[in-house]
Design goal:
single chain; alpha/beta; Rossmann fold; six-stranded mixed β-sheet; Thr_synth_N_sf
Length: about 750
């Protein structure tokens, strides 16, 4: 077997002689001793007996990076091509490849890897090593595999000036680009850590990234979560000892003190070079790179996370680009977020979150997910959890509460039609704010939650936008939209854009602000409200005032919201994580119906946000106007954003308008906007009428199929009483889990 433990021939040093040598060096050259000790301690504490294994395509810089990493750690460096393969074969890699051919070469290379072993070293794999499963399983047992992910265009450029004889699989009928693309599946299978490398990044910088990534991998303690209402300066020893991680907050949903979870150290920052390296990437590749940096591998291993993302955004979206950006007119662009199975932006989170949740929860307990929706969340969460494996459905159930008379007819049909054996919809005789507040109160009712755990072995969890996992996928599409504009040549990287979002619960807007914090050059975020414009007034004045306000039903029901839950996370951010202040503000809102932001905080807020609102009449006029001039139909929420964008943008940079739902979901309002005099009340008939317009975009495939299959089925309806909701929850648990 081929063993490598250090560069020089192994010297036998006894413990006594080693101690004597150390003592002499410490006395004669204390500075040199300190440097050597620091280097040894750094290497030993980071690696121990583990290896750092660098993996990536040819031209990724594995060999050079490996040498620098080894030098920094003071440990052996092994290049598989030069130090193992060529030594074993007694010939060059290119000669061996020419001698035996592609397929036999992979087998021989794998056999050599199976005979190789090392400890405490930095190992640079060949570009083709990951294609041999047995060899990779062997070497991975004692190492941390670091994937140097370099954009294909950069690799192609680097390899132009190099000899190509060592690239396995290259032949007259197969291009280098095809080989690089084919190999990605193997790299994704084996890596523990991804180090994303943009163009023109020095090897020294890549080496530092590798070391930082390995340190992060080995220390999950760095990525804990706190409540927006926690008083960090006055935290008890008990609170400090009970640390919460990503998997914990996915399951728990809401903090015990009523606050919302946020990462204690904030979100990761990407360099401009890293963002530019994603310009050529697909949506799925962008999501993988971004989310890996937000979710620690101790919670979900990177390779498993990549698999989950592939499942979520692969075949479930009707558009290959997943979230395409379409030019509307002038400097306005639409970010189309409705190509998922239930036709709204909620699909981006809710095709992903169920799989994250199923992975994170312990196998010893059943879970009931509680959801409150103002429309789109209901069908999206029902659809998402219905796609879990059957074994997961047996231990995970869901109940969706929605305002019985506060959603569109098609939305209601969707929510009823999407009910499954482990997922139900319950209409509540109230508005969304009641549904959301009721769920928060149920979560913080320890007597009730404790009773469910003891009596039924069932815990409660949340899948609303108050759950941290719901926000992360939304960051991805805001970042992706900007990168698409760069890719299309509309802007160069670094040029600013504005973003306009129809806003109710503030989750989508918060995700855009997070994308900005992570390095996307967003200038202003424009908050667009309908006549329920409490949020608009708050952004303009700093006063959040619910006194005397009643919810107004509108043509854009998803933003018919007066209490914006995710605003709490943003205020916690700009208040420098002052949980005491956040607690004070939201207690005052709960008890007195209003609060006022301090002048300095309002100034910070207004650097990020501007706001406006739109009436129903203006909303319908915008739909008619845009269709008349472009042939494109906006949904009612996008129309609200379009009206506000027209009023507030200064036209000095592009503006990306979030198109949060497909117009098919709001057919009666759309038909009214298009000046249709007589509207059939049957949702399916309404969609058929809309399809006759041959407009852009076409009628949503998933929505049409759902309505065809299910029609308007049965569902439960209950009074606006928390005790009644709790009774429903207990009954559903009894029926499903017992």
């Amino acid at each position: 077997m081929f063993h490598i433990f250090q560069y020089q021939p192994l010297r036998i040093i006894t413990q006594n002689s080693l101690s004597s040598m150390c003592l002499k060096l410490m006395l004669s050259r204390p500075v040199a001793f300190a440097q050597i000790w620091k280097s040894w301690f750094s290497s030993h504490s980071l690696l121990g007996k583990k290896n750092i294994i660098l993996m990536g395509p040819p031209g990724a810089g594995k060999t050079t990076t490996g040498r620098i990493v080894g030098q920094k750690l003071g440990c052996p460096v092994i290049d598989i091509d030069d130090d193992v393969l060529e030594t074993t074969w007694n010939m060059s890699v290119s000669e061996k490849l020419q001698d035996i051919g592609y397929e036999e070469f992979l087998e021989e290379e794998g056999k050599a890897l199976l005979k190789f072993s090392a400890s405490g070293s930095v190992i640079s794999l060949s570009g083709s090593n990951p294609m041999h499963a047995a060899g990779m399983r062997h070497i991975k047992k004692n190492g941390i595999v670091v994937y140097l992910d370099v954009p294909t265009t950069v690799i192609m450029s680097r390899l132009k000036s190099k000899a190509m004889g060592r690239i396995v699989g290259l032949s007259p009928g197969i291009s280098l680009k095809d080989i690089l693309q084919f190999r990605k599946q193997f790299y994704k299978r084996w890596f523990d850590i991804r180090v994303f490398c943009g163009e023109d990044v020095a090897a020294e910088v890549v080496a530092e990234k590798v070391l930082d990534a390995v340190k992060r991998y080995q220390d999950s303690e760095l990525e804990t979560f706190i409540s927006t209402r926690s008083n960090r300066s006055g935290r008890s020893t008990e609170e400090d000892s009970h640390k919460l991680y990503f998997s914990d907050v996915v399951i728990q949903g809401l903090a015990l003190d009523g606050g919302l979870f946020v990462p204690e150290r904030g979100l990761p920052k990407f360099t401009a070079e890293e963002w530019q390296g994603l310009i050529e990437a697909t949506y799925i590749e962008r999501a993988q790179v971004i989310l890996e940096r937000c979710i620690h591998p101790a919670d979900i291993p990177a390779s498993k996370l990549a698999e989950i993302i592939e499942t979520a955004y692969g075949e479930n979206f009707s558009c290959s680009k997943v979230a395409p950006v379409r030019h509307l007119a002038g400097n306005q662009f639409l970010l189309e977020l409705f190509h998922g199975p239930t036709a709204s932006f909620k699909d981006f989170a809710l095709q992903l979150v169920p799989h994250l949740f199923a992975y994170c929860i312990p196998r010893s307990c059943n879970y009931l997910i509680l959801v409150a929706t103002s429309g789109d969340t209901g069908s999206a969460v029902l659809d998402g959890f219905s796609r879990l494996h059957d074994t997961d459905k047996q231990r995970i159930a869901l109940v969706n509460f929605f305002p019985e008379d506060g959603v569109s007819p098609i939305q209601k049909s969707q929510m009823i039609g999407c009910q499954k054996e482990n997922a139900w919809s319950v209409g509540v005789k109230s508005d969304f704010d009641f549904c959301q507040t009721a769920i928060k109160q149920i979560f913080t009712n320890s007597d009730f939650t404790g009773f469910l755990t003891v009596e039924y072995g069932t815990a409660l969890a949340a899948a609303n936008s108050i759950n941290w996992a719901r926000l992360l996928p939304q960051i991805v599409y805001h970042a992706s939209a900007y990168l698409d504009l760069v890719h299309q040549g509309i802007i160069s990287f670094g040029s600013p854009v504005d973003i306009c979002i129809p806003t109710g619960n503030f989750g989508n807007m918060l995700a855009a602000l997070y994308a900005k914090m992570m390095g996307i050059p967003i200038r202003k975020c424009i908050c667009a409200s309908n006549e329920n414009n409490v949020l608009t007034e708050f952004i303009r004045t700093g006063v959040y005032d619910l006194r005397g306000r009643k919810l107004i039903s509108s043509f854009s029901p998803a933003v018919d919201i007066l209490k914006s839950s995710n605003l709490e996370r943003y205020l916690h951010l700009i208040a420098n994580e002052d949980g005491q202040l956040v607690t004070q503000l939201f207690n005052q809102l709960e008890n007195q119906g209003h609060f006022q932001l301090q002048k300095d905080l309002l100034g910070k807020l207004q650097q990020d946000l501007v706001a406006g609102w739109c009436s129903d009449e203006d909303c319908l006029d915008a739909i008619h106007s845009v269709y008349s001039t472009t042939g494109y139909i906006l949904d009612t929420h996008t129309a609200v954003a379009k009206v506000v964008a027209d009023r507030l943008q200064d036209r000095t940079c592009p503006i990306i308008i979030s198109s949060t739902a497909h117009y098919s979901k709001f057919a009666p309002a759309i038909l009214r906007a298009l000046r249709i005099a007589e509207i059939n009340q049957n949702p399916l008939s309404q969609l058929h009428l809309l399809s006759s317009y041959s407009a852009l975009p076409p009628i949503h495939w998933g929505l049409l199929e759902t309505l065809k299959k299910t029609g308007n089925g049965d569902h439960q309806v209950c009074a606006a009483d928390i005790s009644v909701l709790m009774s429903h929850i207990e009954t559903l648990i009894q029926n499903h889990f017992m």
